[in-house]
Each structure stands twice: as structure tokens, then as C-alpha cells.
Amino acid sequence: MRFRKACEIVRNGRIGRLKRVLCGLPGGTPDYGKTGDRQDPEPVPEGFNYDMWLGPAPDAPYAPGRCHVNFRWILDYSGGQITDWGGHHPDIAQWGMGTELTGPVAIRNGQAQWAKEKLWNTATDYTFDAVYENGVTLTISSRVRSGVTFEGTDGWVWVNRGAIEASPEGLLDYTPGPGEIALYHSENHYRNFIDCVLSRKEPIAPIEQAHRSITIAHLGNISLRLGRDLKWDPKAERVIGDDTANGMLARPLRKPWKIEGM
Prior knowledge:
Helix content is 25%, strand content 20%. The protein has 7 helices and 9 strands; from the N terminus they run αβαααββββββααββα. The protein has helices at residues 2-11, 50-54, 80-84, 89-97, 189-199, 207-226, 243-247, and strands spanning 18-24, 106-114, 123-131, 137-141, 147-152, 155-160, 163-167, 230-233, 238-239. The protein has a 9-stranded mixed sheet. The N and C termini lie far apart (41 Å). The relative contact order is 0.20.
């Protein structure tokens, strides 16, 4: 409910013209699986189909620190906190910006520090700007306040799970009136998904919007890894004038894995 309220405040111009959005994500490589001290090769546990677990990813020796929830700190399988959280707060940023079905035109000003462990190598501290065609800049960073902050010419609103703040404070009493933008109402995403399976209606978080949100995270990682800005065509979904960056939009598949038709 708080996310929807924040986005309705922004979409209906209550903070004036939107200038900048700050999207604070976590940093680091938390040892969720309690296997951070076991990054050296070990025998594959009995009953674990490790080859199937690797799937199309490159062949690599088994280690507990490679698998389960800690896989996300290895670039062969994931993109660290940037992609782990890239489907959450950037999704709300896009909702409030009204850009759910498009994306930025450039990725700029990237800075990052990287994990330097035996296996873990994703960004632990990072920041980059996603610049949109209308001039609004979305900053995604581990260095700003967690959550999403919308900054406009006449005020701001910040929102996170379980909390919302605004200036002027009276913005929090706002409810869209007749003729104004009222966003999709869902109090329970699980219930919404089941209801839409049965009704065939579009859910609050359809796959195309999810794709557009996580694309920002992937582009940020590509820019950070290459150490340069990117120009992005959100219609063609290609990096302009950068074959190396375009080659990173997909991953090579380990044989015999393949995608039919590609």
C-alpha cells in the first residue's frame, strides 16, 4: 500500500516535476548459506546432481560456497546484490516514473568495488545512473538510503517496506481524485497471482514489467564490469555502438544445453 501511495503521489504531479530518483540497494556479500569459509573444492555430496545444478553455466568444481543461496555472489550465475535486489526497488522506481514498459537511454557514472574471494566476485559497493529520455536520472546505489526516494521541484517522497515519508508531510494524506491516476490495487501479491491465473487478467507485476526492471540491473553490471558508460536503445533492447557490451546481454551455454530457436 505504501509503495502504491508513493507512486500515485509522484505520477499525479504532487511533488512537481520529477527530477531525480534515488534507489538504495544493499551492498556486500552476506553469507546467507553459512558456507563462506568453504570455497575450496570438495567432493560432491551424495544425492546431489551437481551437473544439473550447474546447468548451462561453465563447468567448475563443486564447493559449498558456490551453491545454494550463496550462488548469487558469483558472476557466472548471478549479479550480486545489484540483481538480487534489482527486481525490487528499481521496479518501484519505474512504477513511480511511469516507465514500467521501457527503460533508460544511458547508463553513466558507474563506480564499484568487487569481492576478491576465491569464488565470490560480485560488486560489494556500487553506484550508477540510469538516464531516461525525459531527462530524469535514476541512481541505483549501495551508498544512498535504502528504498526509493523521488525528488521533484515541489517536494519529495521516500518509501521502503513498511515505511513512507514525504515533504511537505501533508502529501501523505493524498488520495487520487476523479480523473487522476489510480494505480493497480493489490494487498496480497500471492492472492493477486492466483486470482489472475483463474481470471486470466493481468497481475500487478506482469513479466514484461519485471523484465524491464531487471534489465536496468543487468545494464548497470555490464557498465561497471566494462568500466564505461553505455548508450541503450530501450525499443531495440541493444547497446548502441558497443559490440562487447551487447555480447554480455546473454550468456554462453555449456554443451549440451541450448535454447531452441536461438
